[in-house]
Amino acid sequence: MRAFLKVVVVVLAAVALPAALGAPAVVGALTSLNAPRTDGVSPAPEPVAHDPAKPTAVVVVGEQGAVVSDTLAPYEILATTGAFNVYTVAPATHPVPLTGGLDLVPDLTFDELDEVLGGSADVVVIPAMPDVGRPTIEPVTDWLADQAAGGALLLSICNGSGVLASAGLLDGRTATAHWLRVDEFERTYGAVDWVRGTRYVDDGDVVSTAGILSGIDGTLRIVERLVGADAAAEAARGIAWPFYHRDGAARLEQAQLAPADAVVGLNTAFSWGREGIGVLLSDGVGEIELASVFDTYGQSLAVRTVAIGEGAVRSRHGLTFVPRAETAVGLDRLVVPGRTEHEPVPGMAPEYPHREAGFAFDAVLRDLARTTDVATAEWTAKVLEYPVDALALEGPAWPWAETFRPLLLAGVGVLAALGAFALARARRRGRSGT
């Protein structure tokens, strides 16, 4: 019995030190994805123009923010068609954090949208939000219920379907969600028929999509329905999206957690002193270009991003973003989304991932593989639901430093336990010898 207890103590000692040091890092990395700004800066959005002859599409974000690609990719696609009035809306107009620390100033509040339209929007896009199922999201879910009652076509992106399900708007319907949470949603929202293995589900006045970049396919489906297949194909070409199908949603191999996915745990818990990347915001930048930088690096959990700039900027289609720092001091690199050249930054050469044509995420995923490792880039692409077989990712195969750190800590814990046993034995012998 004593020997068994010693084994238990040694095992606990091996686990305790890595857990004690890794757990706070995990919490910090996850909470930083949508951490709110704290300086109170809140510039006004650009005044919106409204054409009553066009249908109106809105992308809703909550007080706690949303996933950046879920928000910006549908916005850019809908705006690019020229067929819609497109706005971002929220309970209030103060900046809300998108994934990775990109602060968006919504165009309109719910009340202001009602003043513009006098009723429901034609299309409402619901991205994944970090507070799904919590009281803080109730202003959004209450508003969504009103929009649905008014006849709006609802498009949930990724785990935005959880937002709709929490409002009871998917009861008795068929829907899909991100592969990481669809099982959880199935347990929590049993009145919904959850579907796997497809990029989107069209259930009439509700269209739901699978994870993150599958939202592009769902948005193109909306364009097909309301504008036409030719317009959807043109929009797909405009962003170099390779997976558009006119004949319905493309099949999607349902992802599952695999041993190689342990890379995210290592990066989250043991990537001490994570590389800091300043992301320089500039007027006219494409919304998907912005999303590709903040979401790729952010979802990797191996890199932290900081929005850099001297004041509010306007994106290509008029969204307002607010940087969190004026300079890249204290950061390791400076990345400039889009294709606009900038003045050199003292002590740091700007990097331009979007100089070459192609889908915006391709170059950023290649950079992630090169500067961290291929396993991290593959995990990130899996989370984004973006196949990378054709990207030829190059870089270190695995984060070996992050792998050895918990092993070394476990070894220290075992040695400490063995040392304690040896000290206890010595004391017992000393007492017995007196």
Describe what this molecule looks like in 3D.
With 434 residues, the chain is α/β, with parallel strands linked by helices. The protein folds into three domains: 144 residues, 3-Layer(aba) Sandwich (Rossmann fold); 183 residues, Rossmann fold (3-Layer(aba) Sandwich), CATH 3.40.50; 36 residues. Helices cover 42% and strands 14% of the residues. The chain has 13 helices and 17 strands. A seven-stranded mixed beta sheet has the order 5-2-1-6-7-11-10, sandwiched between helices. The protein is globular, with a radius of gyration of 24 Å. The model has no long low-confidence stretch (mean pLDDT 93).
List descriptors.
about 425 residues; alpha/beta; Rossmann fold
Helix content: 40-55%
CATH superfamily of the largest domain: Class I glutamine amidotransferase (GATase) domain
Q: In percent terms, what proportion of residues is strand?
A: 5-15%
- Shape category: globular
Write the CATH fold name of the largest domain: Rossmann fold
Question: For the residues shown, what is the average pLDDT?
Answer: 93
Structural class: alpha/beta
CATH architecture of the largest domain: 3-Layer(aba) Sandwich
Main sheet makeup: 7 strands, mixed
Alpha-carbon distance between the termini? 28 Å
Please tally the helical runs, counting DSSP H or I stretches of 4 or more residues: 13
Q: Low-confidence stretches at least 5 residues in length (pLDDT < 50)? A: none
> In which order are the strands of the major sheet placed?
5-2-1-6-7-11-10
| Radius of gyration over all CA atoms, rounded | 24 Å
How are helices and strands ordered from N to C? HEHEEEEHEHEHEHEEEHHHEHEEEEEHHH
Total tally of structural domains: 3
